[in-house]
Amino acid sequence: MNLIFSMGLMGGPFVGWLLWGFVRRRPTGAREWRFWRVLIPICVLVGVGVVGERNPFGVAHLTLIPLEVLGLSLVAAAFPWRRVTALAVVAGCIVDFSLGVLLQARIEALETLRNESFSPPA
After folding, report:
1. pLDDT, tens digit, for every residue of 48-93?
2. Crossing angle, helix 11-25 and helix 83-96, to 10 degrees?
3. Chain centroid to CA 29: how far?
4. Which residues contact 48 (CB under 8 A, 6 or more apart)?
5. Which of 31, 36, 80, 118 yields a CA-CA distance of 20 to 30 A from 15?
6. Is residue 45 predicted with pLDDT exceeding 70?
7. Cα gap 3→71, rounded to integer Å
8. Is the CB of residue 76 less than 8 Å from the CB of residue 8?
9. Torsion of CA 85, 10, 101, 3, to 10 degrees
10. What phi, psi does 47 have (nearest 5°)?
11. Could you write out the DSSP letters of every residue in the chain?
12. CA–CA distance from 117 to each of 80, 105, 107 (Å)?
């Protein structure tokens, strides 16, 4: 539910690392880079500001999905760098899928099976 880890266990920190590398290497006068330096913080501030409810875990799942998609696109564009980095990202995807998607689908299926087995006969 926060912006960094909503991009994945390894994807979010990898996006942060990529952005930090771009900040260090990019010239400050480039027009495109000035656009991104302004867009990212403003989108985060406005995205969090428009949410009316309080959530102690974060609100990225409500309004910051476009930034999450941009971050995942950055990971996809920079993916085949080094073998260790690629393996870490793939391992993070496997953990995210098994603990996020697969586990939730399994628990929901168990709940559905339990409700069907206790239903009264027609």
Report:
1. 888 878 877 777 777 888 888 888 888 888 776 778 877 888 888 8
2. 140
3. 29
4. 59, 63, 64
5. 31
6. yes
7. 10
8. no
9. -140
10. -60, -40
11. --TTGGG-TTHHHHHHHHHHHHHHHS-TT-HHHHHHHHHHHHHHHHHHHT--S--TT-SHHHH-HHHHHHHHHHHHHT-SS-HHHHHHHHHHHHHHIIIIIIHHHHHHHHHHHHHHHTSPP-
12. 48, 18, 15
> What percent of the chain shows pLDDT beyond 90?
0
pTM, entire model: 0.65
Q: Quote the CA–CA distance of 110 and 115 in Å, as a whole number.
A: 9
User: Tokens 């771009």 appear where?
Assistant: 22
**Amino acid identity for residue 28 in this structure:** T
Contact 3, 64 (CB under 8 A): yes
Residues 6+ apart with CB under 8 A from 106: none
pLDDT of 26 higher than 70: no
In 3D space, the residue among 66, 82, 88, 79 whose CA is nearest the CA of residue 10 turns out to be 88
Q: Looking at residue 117, what is its pLDDT?
A: 61
